[in-house]
Amino acid sequence: MKKPRICAAIIKDDLSAIRKVEPLVELFEVRIDLIGGGWPNLAKQLRKPWIACNRMSDEGGRWQRDEAGRIEELIRAVELGANIVDIELRTKNLATAIPLIKRRARCLVSLHELKKTPPLNRLKEIVQRELAAGADVCKVITTAQSFKDNLTTLKLIAEFPEVKIVSFAMGPLGFTSRVFCPLVGGYFTYASIGEGKESAPGQITVSHLTKIYQIMSG
Fold first, then answer.
1. Is residue 136 part of a domain?
2. Position 80 in a domain
3. Which of 4, 9, 36, 119 gives a 20 to 30 Å CA spacing to 45?
4. Over the stretch 102-161, which tens digit does the pLDDT of each residue have?
5. Read out DSSP for 140-163?
């Protein structure tokens, strides 16, 4: 089994927890909206590639200031060496922001459905819109209301074999899709750096996820 790629989400300045999981992950996600003002200093200490994310409140984030300031922090992350920048498809000035990001980083265009999992055709349309916007990586995250929703998000990955895509369902019922995302062709999956440090509902810890993959690989 090819080693599944794990991205560890960082929601606060906790360098000891970060160092513990560093050997087990391929990249980190720096949640600017959750870490707060000290995020640049933390990002400089990371030894793996990192994604800058400043999640808007409409998609589950906690950014409190204005939209212009939110984008400014993402551009600042590019200057500080972010490898990938996560920007939402619903961002108002998306067409202006993406070229600024892509000068020095790759662009992950994301959409988060916080209440349900739309039908597969609707999810495919979202990926097409992300690609049209200039995404290097497409991300479509839904919320599982049933086990079937796991299958819908995983089928989406199969629909775009040539695209770098991350797709799974959040919440307790989305556990299966989180685990299987990178096993069925997803670019990577997300995990928390430790218990109580989750950036989204249903997120698994890096250590737990790594153990699952070790068991699966025999």
1. no
2. yes
3. 4
4. 999 999 999 999 999 999 999 999 999 999 999 999 999 999 999 999 999 999 999 999
5. EEEE-SSTHHHHHHHHHHHH-TTS
Instruction: For residue 51, give both structure tokens.
Output: 């994604």
Active site residue 208: no
Segments forming the whole domain that contains residue 184: 6-109+174-217
pTM for this prediction: 0.94
- Convert the pLDDT of each residue in 34-85 to its tens digit: 998 899 999 999 999 999 999 988 887 888 888 889 999 999 999 999 999 9
Q: Which of 139, 164, 208, 211 is catalytic?
A: 139
CATH number of domain containing 209: 3.20.20.70
The residue from 112, 115, 148, 155 that is catalytic is: 112
When divided into structural domains, the chain yields a total of 1
Segment (H or E) for 86: strand 84-88
